[in-house]
Amino acid sequence: MGPADGSPAHGDQADGDPAAGGDGGGGGSAGAGWASRIPPPRSSVEDTGLPLPTPAPAPLALEHRVLKSLLGAWALAACSGEETAAVEEHLGECGACADEALRLRGAVGLLHPPESLDLDPALRTRVLESCLDRRPPRIPVPEWAAPYDAETARLDALLQDIADAEWHAPVRLRWFEDDGPVSRRTTVAGVIAHLLSVDGLVGVALGLDDPLGGAAARVRAEADAAAAAGIPRGPDLPGPQDATPAGRTETYWRASHFPPTRAVRRPWREQSHHLVRTVAFAGGGSGQLAVDYGGFALPLRDSMLDRAFECWVHAGDIADAVDYPYEPPAPRHLHRMIDLAARMLPVSLAERRRAGRAAPPARHLVAAGAPGRSLRLEIEAARPAFEDEAVQADTLVPLNGSATRR
Question: What is the mean pLDDT of residues 190-216?
């Protein structure tokens, strides 16, 4: 549109425009709206009644010798905030002090090597030991049951970290039977089932439920029926030795309609908790209770050590199968396991001799002057020191080459 139709031309302003100073139309209200957009003058902080901000402290004015003496504390981060600011400001002006500060910071780094942010793996153990030292448990676990408690807890932590598929990882169990090695292939879940069934021997001795339940009777009935039908008993069927650890394991495996899965972890862990809790309530005097292993018996205190040792060995088998690192037991627990093995060794050797499986001692002649020889000296007294004692001493004197020549 142009000027001909009465409308203002482009670039012109209307009469009521406040910028043009016109007073036509709604010029009054428009002028008031325009004035309301102007910010009011700001009031001073002193007029508000609020507390004034704390003024910044004045920097410390220290002499050069004082600032130089603070360099060591500054390197160790032991200065106050004001001293730190004064020292750092001085380091920007004094080159000699700056060089000395760098050397001190390097020395501090050598005194305090960088530490990992990861927690110490032994921290939890130290905290628990400190807590138990300050407040001993009302019902303590006997010392001879502590290795079993620790090893089952370590194995349970390993089982918690493995995936579902790793429960079916193959595991080769190896042991010695008579005079030859024997092996059996199973899975990780099968190993836990083996520990569950053998630990049940200790549970039965303590009056707990047998994890096999009626499985042993059911499998034995199947074996008897097969024998009555003239079917020879297979190597994995229970026989007269079904009360032994190996027989109980075979019974548990055969009684399972499906191969063991990770579901076996829960009853095994619950049984281990029940065993430790029961021996704790029974007290240390229960250590002489006999645990029947089928062909022999062990005191409860030795049986718990035996179960701890086997738990550690089979935990190592599982760790190897799933490629997982596994550490040996605590030194004090390992000492008890080795002590048990040393005490049982003479009994085992005597059993082998009675069964006719002990190798006769090798007797051979050694050339004179050869190292490794020994002399047996039999010393007899003229008369016995006591009436009922025959005085005779056997002494083996090892001889090396030089002693023989002399």
Answer: 88
Q: Is there a contact between 180 and 174 (Cβ–Cβ < 8 Å)?
A: no
Q: Residue 374 pairs with which residues in a beta bridge?
A: 398
Amino acid type, 405: R
**354-376 pLDDT, tens per residue?**
877 766 555 666 666 666 555 55
**The residue to which tokens 């003229």 are assigned:** 382
Which long-range contacts (C-beta less than 8 Å, at least 24 apart) are formed by 125-129? none
Residues forming CATH 1.20.120.450 domain(s) in the chain: 139-315
Residues paired with 176 in a beta bridge? 181
0.90 exceeded by the pTM?
no
Q: If you classify domain 139-315 with CATH, what class do you get?
A: mainly alpha
Q: 314, 191 in Cβ contact below 8 A?
A: yes
Rg of the chain taking only CA atoms, in angstroms: 44
How far CA 50 is from CA of 41, 46, 55, 283, 357, in Å, comes to 18, 7, 15, 72, 101
Determine phi and psi for 357, rounding to 5 degrees: -105, 0
